[in-house]
Amino acid sequence: MTDSLYPGYDVLQKRDGQSWNSASRRTLDARLSLRQAPRFFAQAEWFTVRALCERIMPQPTGSQVVPLAALLDQRLLSGRTDGFRRANLPQQAEAWRQGLAAIDVEARTHHGMAFHELDPEQQDALLRRLQAGELTGAAWRGMPGQDFFAHRVLPDITSAYYAHPLAWNEIGFGGPASPRGYVRMDFNRRDPWEAAEALPGNEVQALSENRRVR
Fold first, then answer.
1. What is the band of 1 on the pLDDT scale with cuts at 50, 70, 90?
2. Largest CB tally within 10 Å, which of 87, 151, 160, 188?
3. Which one-letter DSSP state was computed for residue 179?
4. What is the Cα–Cα distance from 4 to 20, expressed in whole angstroms?
5. Average pLDDT, the chain
6. Which one, of 30, 6, 32, 14, lies nearest residue 182 by Cα?
7. Number of neighbours of residue 102 by Cβ within 10 angstroms
8. Using CA atoms, how far apart are residues 78 and 169, in angstroms rounded to an integer?
9. Is the previous residue joined to 60 through a cis bond, with omega within 30 degrees of 0?
10. Using alpha carbons only, what angle is made at residue 37 by residues 33 and 114, rounded to the nearest 5 degrees?
């Protein structure tokens, strides 16, 4: 029996069914076809952002992974923003360029290597210092590193993760609600086209139900 909370569930089984319309399918196809190569980021930035994504949202090795750096690269390339920004941070694209450069400078200052060359423990230690507001070198150019971490790094990377179908399988999410929608919105109720959670004692039933979800 799998350790998944939603055994047998694959949201992509819904692709050609009643759950999604053509707009939903186009959006999902675009996310699934992203190449692991930079178009917005420069090569040095790409190395840094890939390493950063691996520390913020570690994923299993030897299996399919959510292409976090590519999703972030695509968002920045498109110019899509939150629609607002904090007064002490630059615009989204500039904040990322400035922040990645500063993280790399801090890594070289404290460890003599680029951020992506550090081992995971060193990377985590540096990020903890960033989160605590302890990295304030000139490379930040007045941008508060602590705020960059809290209001750009964490939300941008985690939102990229949960925008991908692999993450939807993990949490039992059915994807876009268009055109079918969700009807049973009360606590402990679900529509038959939603994933069944494998609660103690109903693992086999959940597996059977999830294999039929469309």
1. very low
2. 160
3. B
4. 24
5. 93
6. 14
7. 21
8. 26
9. no
10. 145
**What are the backbone dihedrals phi and psi of residue 91, each rounded to the nearest 5 degrees, phi first?**
-55, 155
Q: How far apart are CA 44 and CA 28, in angstroms?
A: 29
Tens digit of each residue's pLDDT (9 = 90 or more) over 162-174: 999 999 999 999 9
- Residues 112-136, mean pLDDT to the nearest whole number: 98
On whether the pTM is more than 0.85, the answer is yes
| Cβ atoms within 10 Å of 61's Cβ, excluding its own | 6
Query: Where does residue 126 rank: exposed (0-12), middle (13-18), buried (19+ CB within 10 A)?
Result: buried
Q: With contact defined as beta carbons under 8 Å apart, do 180 and 17 qualify?
A: no
Longest CA–CA span in the chain (Å) reads 58
**Beta-bridge partners for 20:** 179
Q: Measure the CA–CA gap between 47 and 116, rounded to whole angstroms.
A: 6
The encoded tokens of residue 170 equal 């993990």
Which residue do the tokens 């985690």 mark? 158
Taking the C-alpha atoms of residue 33 and residue 26, their distance in angstroms, rounded to an integer, is 11
Owner of token pair 């494998």: 198
Burial (0-12, 13-18, 19+ Cβ within 10 Å), 144? middle
Q: Residue 130: pLDDT above 50?
A: yes
Of the candidates 188, 195, 167, the one whose C-alpha atom is nearest the C-alpha of residue 19 is: 195
Three-state DSSP class for 20? strand
